[in-house]
Structures are given as C-alpha cells and as structure tokens.
Design goal:
The chain has 2 helices and 13 strands. By secondary structure, it is an alpha+beta fold. The chain has 3 domains: about 70 residues, no CATH class; about 35 residues, no CATH class; about 70 residues, no CATH class. A hairpin with a 5-residue loop joins strand 2 and strand 3.
Length: about 200
C-alpha cells in the first residue's frame, strides 16, 4: 500500500490508487480510501468513521457506521455541535455554559445577532409549534401542560389582555381586602407603610 509521511517513508509514484488505502499514520490503521466508487472513506483506528460523497450534485458528509453521531468539538474536548442519529441537532457547551443558537443579521447592516439559550431546568422540555401560521393579532401561548412535551398554540392578543386584566383586578381586590383587614385590626402603622409603598 502507498504511504504518506509515515514509516515506512516511501514516495507515492502512483497517480491512480485504484481504490487502495492511502495510509497516513505510523501503525497503518488510519487511512483515506475510495474502495467504493464515487465515495471517499476516512478510516480511523482500523474502522471507517466518515464518508464523503455526492447526491445529485450536493456534497454529502455521512457517518460510516449506523447509529453513530457526528460530533464537532473544541480543542479541550467540549462538544459544541452534535448531529445525532436520534434525529436532532444539539448545541452544547459542556461545563462552560449553556449552548446558544445565534442568528446574525445581514453583514451589510452590521454584526449584531439574536440568540436563543436555555436557563437551569429541572428536566427536558420539547416545544411543539402550531401547524397553522395563526392570524393577525395572535401570539404564541403554552398549553401549560407541565409535561416534557409542551404545545404552543395561537391566542388572540385581545383575549390575553382581557385575561391579564382580570388577573390584575383579582390581585387588586385581594390587596384591598388585606388593607381592610389590617385597618380593622388597628395596625395603622403597617397600613401607612403599605400605602406609602403603593404610592
């Protein structure tokens, strides 16, 4: 087999390897080969791990082993991006902080971005978007199921404002009852302090 930059140190004098492995490490278990037509395989530690091929003109990077993921890591070993065989893409940051998705504006306008990230959670949560695009005046609202699968639904903003107003009124009525109770109990000093804070 031809070698490149490893022991034994030989010169490649073939223009066509004809599907043979191009060994690139000293113990001869890491290579690049094209034993399958129109496909480049990357072999590490004696096993193919990555394939590079074409599909209708599109470049395809593919895991060479079923049920394995493609991980992008930093120098320190932190996985930043996980293209997972489970059908999802994970953005992580190890123990450094939460993973963050950044969407940048057009560079003609500047270098600002909008970012999405999670806070500290007690468990996994999946947000499911509505199947329709909603109507004018609608906003997304959680169904409040408290489960790991949270459905987001469209809610008319006017209705939300009405519900919010009712909630505020309820709080104000509760406050008035509390103030009345304090007054009846003769706690004038406490009542003055509360009214001062409200003012």
């Amino acid at each position: 087999m031809p070698y490149l930059g490893a022991t034994p140190d030989t010169t490649i004098d073939q223009k066509d390897l004809n599907g043979q492995k191009l060994i690139i490490d000293a113990d001869a278990d890491t290579s690049i080969h094209a034993s399958t037509d129109d496909q480049i395989d990357v072999e590490v530690a004696g096993a193919d791990v990555l394939q590079i091929k074409s599909s209708s003109g599109d470049a395809v990077i593919k895991a060479a082993v079923d049920a394995k993921d493609i991980l992008f890591q930093q120098y320190d070993g932190r996985t930043i991006l996980d293209v997972n065989d489970g059908g999802y893409v994970a953005i992580t940051n190890g123990a450094t902080g939460a993973g963050q998705l950044r969407l940048y504006e057009d560079t003609d306008n500047g270098t600002n971005y909008s970012a999405f990230q999670v806070g500290t959670q007690s468990g996994d949560i999946t947000y499911t978007l509505p199947t329709a695009d909603g109507s004018d005046g609608h906003a997304l609202k959680t169904d409040g199921s408290g489960t790991k699968l949270v459905k987001l639904i469209w809610l008319l903003m006017m209705l939300w404002e009405k519900l919010h107003f009712k909630h505020q009124m309820k709080q104000q009525v509760q406050m008035l009852f509390w103030l009345q109770l304090q007054f009846k109990q003769g706690q004038k000093e406490t009542l003055v302090q509360v009214l001062t804070q409200l003012h």
